[in-house]
Amino acid sequence: MSYRLLSFKSGNEARAGLLIGEQVYDAARVTGKAAWSSVLGALHDWPKAQREFAAFAKRISSGRSKAKGMPLARVKLLAPVLYPGNIYCAGANYTDHMAEMARAQGKEPGPTMKDLGEKPWHFVKTSRSSVVGPGAKVKLPAYSQKVDWEVELAAVIGRTVKDVSVDKALACVAGYTIANDLSARDAMKRDKNPPSSPFHYDWVSQKCFEGSCPLGPWIVPAGDIGDPHRLGIRLWVNGELMQDSHTSKLIFDTAEQIAMLSSRVSLHPGDLVLTGTPAGVGMGRGRFLKPGDTVKLWIESIGELAHSIA
């Protein structure tokens, strides 16, 4: 039996927890490592932490541990990483999404950036302001009437790397979780700046409003995922299936994205790489989130993340 790494609320503080079966165990208490009381603390010591977490899960499953857990149903889950160091988000990175967006603009789908010899492209999302956890009620920004949904596979970095090669890039991933890259589509452009201006696009207003990055419900260790490019990925709004795709449709895969990012900056434990969203976003159909909506996200082998719109 394996484990899931999560953050949960205990009194007035956030604690790192290990989900084993349907029981949640306080990570620091069951290992005796005070520094692992937060998920970030564990990620900064990931080679050792992952071994001890796996060993504890094995003791639980074999009945050799008398540690007491808490039923998952009674635990208040928080975003698994409180708070990520940096959040790097891939843009235009699923073949089906690119075709969808081309059709929405009355164009025929063309070659991908990878086909044209380009490199992966990312923007940055804020951390403390943006990240919220399972069950969050996200308030729509007052300046936007077109907030869109985007389910994404998020890779959680567990080792500091710089200039890592593609073939070694996945070794720096501690695990994977689910993210919703909420986007204010009508705040995307500054109309008084011409499209030729480098200041035409407003990435902060579009991507970084309060609660714009629901995250969770937990981190699945990379070893339990195997190949992150063989996962089903879906999103529902009010029970209606909107996105239904597969991570095999990524244009630049997770390893290629990490290698590219590390060629520009050092990646550190607790950083996130959101790998892109597939077809089915609201912009492609002219439909956007409104107060009272419920959103459910699912990625195969990880689980479900749900939140609502306040």
Chain-wise SSE layout:
Elements: E1 4-10, E2 13-20, E3 23-26, H1 27-31, H2 39-43, H3 46-62, E4 70-71, E5 77-78, E6 87-90, H4 95-104, E7 122-125, E8 131-132, E9 137-138, E10 147-148, E11 151-157, H5 166-169, E12 173-180, E13 183-184, H6 203-207, E14 213-221, H7 222-225, E15 232-237, E16 240-246, H8 254-264, E17 272-274, E18 294-299, E19 303-309
Parallel strand pairs: 6-17, 8-14, 9-19
Antiparallel strand pairs: 1-2, 1-5, 2-3, 3-4, 6-7, 10-13, 11-12, 11-17, 12-14, 15-16, 15-18, 18-19
Describe this structure in a few short sentences:
This protein is α+β, with helices and mostly antiparallel strands and 310 residues long.
- Span between termini: 37 Å
CATH fold name of the largest domain, please? Fumarylacetoacetate hydrolase, domain 2
| DSSP E strands, number | 19
**Rg for CA atoms:** 19 Å
CATH architecture of the largest domain: Alpha-Beta Complex
- Which structural category fits the helices and strands? alpha+beta
